[in-house]
């Protein structure tokens, strides 16, 4: 079942969890412009590849997508394993999300010391 995680009517940005498709989707003005794929392994989500349409890059949409996903996982008390370099870079630069990363299966994440 699709779940809306973020809806900013002013910026017309929406982030939706689409579990049947195995990804989070980013919509701008009602059009899907990005995704962050995932799969569920045990009690954690393995966050895979992120994609944002070329026409929407450089406008902060990727950061919105990643932040909303991490906040949702935190709220649901789920852990993440990172396979996507963009998500790993985002979390490394924002260590406040370290609690969302599965310490026994962090993937490619590594906090800067």
Q: Please, could you describe this protein's structure?
A:
- This protein has a six-stranded mixed sheet with strand order 1-2-3-4-5-6, with helices on one face.
- The chain has helices at residues 61-75, 85-93, and strands at 3-8, 13-18, 23-28, 31-41, 44-52, 79-82.
- The mean pLDDT is 92.
- The chain has 113 residues and is an alpha+beta fold.
- The longest helix is centred in the middle third of the chain and has 15 residues, at 61-75.
- 33% of the residues are buried.
- 21% of the residues lie in helices and 37% in strands.
- It has two helices and six strands.
- It starts with a strand and ends in a 20-residue tail after the last helix.
Determine the strand fraction and express it as a percent band.
35-45%
Biggest sheet descriptor: 6 strands, mixed
Binned, the helix content reads: 10-25%
Order of strands, main sheet, comes to 1-2-3-4-5-6
Rg computed from alpha carbons, rounded to a whole number of angstroms: 13 Å
Instruction: Give the helices and strands as they follow along the chain.
Output: EEEEEHEH
Top keywords for this entry?
single chain; 113 residues; alpha+beta; six-stranded mixed beta sheet; 2 helices; 21% helix; globular
Short description, anyone?
This protein has helices at residues 61-75, 85-93, and strands at residues 3-8, 13-18, 23-28, 31-41, 44-52, 79-82. A hairpin with a 2-residue loop joins strand 4 (31-41) and strand 5 (44-52).
Task: Describe the protein's topology.
Elements lengths: L2 E6 L4 E6 L4 E6 L2 E11 L2 E9 L8 H15 L3 E4 L2 H9 L20
Parallel strand pairs: 5-6
Antiparallel strand pairs: 1-2, 2-3, 3-4, 4-5
